[in-house]
Write a structure and sequence with these properties.
This protein is α+β, with helices and mostly antiparallel strands and 380 residues long. It folds into 2 domains: 2-160, DHBP synthase (Alpha-Beta Complex), CATH 3.90.870.10; 166-255 and 292-372, GTP cyclohydrolase II (Rossmann fold). The protein has 16 helices and 15 strands. It has helices at residues 2-12, 36-46, 56-61, 81-89, 106-117, 134-142, 151-160, 219-223, 231-244, 256-259, 262-273, 278-284, 295-303, 316-324, 344-354, 359-362, and strands spanning 17-20, 26-30, 51-55, 70-74, 102-103, 124-128, 147-150, 166-172, 181-187, 194-200, 210-216, 248-253, 308-312, 328-333, 371-372. Strands 8-9-10-12-11-13-14-15 form an 8-stranded mixed beta sheet, with helices on both faces. A 7-stranded mixed beta sheet has the order 5-4-3-6-2-1-7, sandwiched between helices. β8 (166-172) and β9 (181-187) form a beta hairpin. The two termini are 33 Å apart. Its EC number is 3.5.4.25. Pathway: Cofactor biosynthesis; riboflavin biosynthesis; 5-amino-6-(D-ribitylamino)uracil from GTP: step 1/4. Residues 167-332 form the GTP cyclohydrolase II domain. Belongs to the GTP cyclohydrolase II family.
C-alpha cells in the first residue's frame, strides 16, 4: 500500500513512475505538467513510441466508441504536448483520422487508476519499456530516481483503500440548526482522506429508523455559498431536518465534485460556462456520470452501529448503495435548496441525466422537503 501511495504522490508532483506488469513495464507521466520536454524524455527513456491513455468517456467525446474502460492512442514523434493535452481534455478536439485507438495493457490500466485515486485528470502519457532500455530504467529505479510499483498492487489498493476506517477524534460542536451535535472524525487507511460523522442529538432518543444524510463535500457551495449548486442549502437544511426529527447522523464525505476533486470540478465549471451541462463537462475530462462510491459511508454507519435509516436524499444511487451494503432504508425524505437562475441548469441535468428526484423543486412545488413514499431505483 505504501508504494502505491508514494507513486500517487509522485504523479501529483508531475513526476513519472514505472508500473511493473506481467506483459510489459510501463513508464507513466501524468497529463498534468506534460510538456514537450517531458514527452521527449519519456520517449527516449522507454525506447518506444509513447501513447496517450484515456478513458472510454473521453474517447466518446472524441467521437469514438469502445467497450474498453481504458484505451491507448498512439502518438507520433511530431505530436506536440499541446496537441496531446487537447486530445485528452479539451472540449473541441478531434483525433487525426489515421489514428486508431488500441486496447490498454495491464500497466496502462493501473496508471489511470492511480490518476483517479490521486484526483488528477484521468489521462496519462505512457511508454512500454523496450528491451534495449530496460537496464537503464532499472538503474534509475535502483538509485531512487524513478519509483516502481506493481500493477497488482495498484489494483488491490483501488479495491481496498476506503476500507478500514480509523476513528481518530471527536468533539461536541453546537450548530446553528442543531445545538446538540458531536463531530466524529474518520480517516481512511492510507491517510489521504478524512470524513466526518455529525452525530445530532442523543442516540438513545433516536427513532428506530435513524435519519441519515450522506453529504458529499462541496467547498464552493457549503463554505462560500456558491449559487451554481444547492449544496450549502441542502447541508444546512439536512442538519435542521435531522434535529427536528429527534436527531440522527449527517455523514460529511470527502467526495468533492461527485468524486472528481476540487481541481477537476473547477475545470468542469469552466466547460459548463461554454454551454455544457454538468454531466457532459465531466465526460470531456474523462470522468463518468458520477465517480462517487459509498463504501466509506457504509463503514461509518457500521462503526456507529446504525442498521436502519430514513435517508435524506434525492439520489436513487444512494438508496441502491445502502441496500447493497446491508443498511435498510425504511423511508426517504427529499432534501432541497432554493432554485435559482444560476443553478437551474445544474439541477435540471441531475434530474434528466442522473435520475435524481427533483420534480418538486424544479416545478416550484410547496411539497418540497416532505417525507415521500419510498422509491427504489430502477434496475440497470
Amino acid at each position: 500500500m505504501r508504494q502505491v501511495e508514494r507513486a500517487i504522490f509522485d504523479l501529483r508532483r508531475g513526476l513519472p513512475v514505472l508500473v511493473r506488469a506481467a506483459n510489459s513495464d510501463v513508464l507513466v507521466h501524468p497529463l498534468e505538467g506534460c510538456d514537450d520536454e517531458a514527452l521527449a524524455a519519456l520517449h527516449a527513456l522507454s525506447g518506444n513510441e509513447p501513447a496517450l491513455a484515456v478513458t472510454r468517456h473521453r474517447l466518446a467525446r472524441l467521437g469514438l466508441d469502445t467497450a474498453d474502460r481504458i484505451v491507448r492512442i498512439p502518438l507520433d514523434p511530431a505530436d506536440t504536448a499541446e496537441e496531446v493535452v487537447a486530445w485528452a481534455s479539451a472540449e473541441k478536439s478531434a483525433l487525426p483520422p489515421e489514428i486508431t485507438p488500441q486496447s490498454a495493457n495491464e500497466g496502462t490500466v493501473a496508471a489511470l487508476d492511480m490518476m483517479r485515486i490521486g484526483l488528477l485528470i484521468p489521462a496519462a502519457v505512457v511508454g512500454d519499456v523496450s528491451d534495449a532500455q530496460r537496464a537503464r530504467v532499472e538503474t534509475l529505479v535502483a538509485d531512487g530516481s524513478i519509483l516502481a510499483v506493481a500493477a497488482e498492487q495498484v489494483d488491490a489498493y483501488a479495491e481496498t483503500r476506503s476500507n478500514f476506517l480509523k476513528r481518530t477524534s471527536d468533539a461536541e460542536i453546537p450548530l446553528s440548526h442543531a445545538e446538540r451535535a458531536r463531530f466524529v472524525m474518520f480517516r481512511e487507511a492510507d491517510g489521504m482522506r478524512e470524513h466526518i460523522a455529525i452525530v445530532i442529538g442523543d442516540p438513545n432518543d433516536w427513532s428506530d429508523a435513524v435519519p441519515v444524510r450522506l453529504h458529499s463535500a462541496c467547498l464552493t457551495g457549503d463554505l462560500f455559498g456558491s449559487l451554481r449548486c444547492d449544496c450549502g442549502e441542502q447541508l444546512r437544511e439536512s442538519v435542521r431536518a435531522i434535529d427536528e426529527r429527534g436527531g440522527g447522523v449527517l455523514l460529511y464525505l470527502a467526495q468533492e465534485g461527485r468524486g472528481i476533486g476540487l481541481a477537476n470540478k473547477l475545470r468542469a465549471y469552466t466547460l459548463q460556462d461554454g454551454g455544457l451541462d454538468t454531466v457532459d463537462a465531466d465526460h470531456v475530462l474523462g470522468f463518468g456520470d458520477d465517480e462517487r462510491t459509498y463504501g466509506v459511508a457504509l463503514e461509518m454507519l457500521e462503526q456507529l452501529e446504525i442498521e436502519r435509516i430514513e435517508l435524506l436524499t434525492n439520489n436513487p444511487e444512494k438508496i441502491a448503495a445502502m441496500d447493497q451494503g446491508g443498511v435498510e432504508v425504511v423511508n426517504r425524505r427529499g432534501i432541497y435548496g432554493k432554485l435559482t437562475k444560476q443553478n437551474r441548469r445544474y439541477l435540471d441535468a441531475k434530474a434528466k441525466r442522473a435520475g435524481h428526484w427533483l420534480e418538486d423543486v424544479l416545478n416550484g412545488s410547496e411539497e418540497a422537503g416532505r417525507v415521500t413514499a419510498l422509491q427504489r431505483p430502477a434496475a440497470r
